[in-house]
Amino acid sequence: MRLQRPVAVVTGTTHGIGRVCARELVHAGFELHMLVRDVQAGGHLAEALRAVRADALVHVVACELGSLASVRQAADQVLQRSPRLRLLLNNAGMVSLRRERSMDGFERVFAVNHLGPFLLTERLRAALEPGGRIVNVASSDHARGQLQLQAVLDPDAHPWRPRAAYARSKLANVLHAFALARRLQGSGVSAHALHPGVVHTQLLPLWLRAIKPLMSPGMLSAEQGARSSLHLALTPDVSALNGGYLDADQQPRAASRAAQDLGLQEALWAASWAWCGLSGGSG
What we know:
Blueprint lengths: L6 E5 L4 H12 L3 E6 L2 H14 L5 E5 L5 H14 L3 E6 L17 H17 L3 E10 L11 H5 L8 H23 L5 E5 L11 H10 L6 H4 L1 H8 L9 E3 L15 H14 L8
Parallel strand pairs: 1-2, 1-4, 2-3, 4-5, 5-6, 6-7
Helix pairs in contact: 1-2, 3-4, 4-6, 6-10
């Protein structure tokens, strides 16, 4: 009889931090669902991961986080195969130099970095087993963020600044983790946010990747940037860190004042719940 493996769901595994996390989770014996935009790239990675561990169980799931319908389909596909989960790692993210709308009409950076992961989490969190954890990869840039919900609904009516849009989405990641942690108290499941460090990955536009190391010589590699995610994923008991925020050295740090604002957490939760078309109360 085959032993049951812990099951992990990770978004954004085809490059950078997500790719490192996928490799290490497979090496640690997890069954892995990789939620990716590029299914072909995901398939190549799955083959590489099976070379890391011959008995690896790796599933490639198409998921466009900027489409709520795609997120629902991906979550359903995960649950059909794996009704019990140990880890949900909301790792994928994006930046954009242009003002864009998602497939559902929201400001796209916010949709991909927050709304998609929020919906995915809500669709999967009942499947998290005791000892499970939900991890949001945020950023220290969340401290620059301002939660402007109207700018999410009507981005054309507001000034566009790429870094401000990114910071707003990262603030949302931390607010989400903190509000979720309260809802998970007593369940045996924990929620976390983290700053991976300033990492040289494909999240940056190509031109910025070329010059960023000159501007920030202390940038981390993807291997280094994955450490805090893997710490939360693989440490046997992280319950004491529920509702916390880790820095790139795996140390608890105080999040920004805005991120700790309970009213802001609940305002975002209610708006996200409505925007994602969830029913049955406000979670």
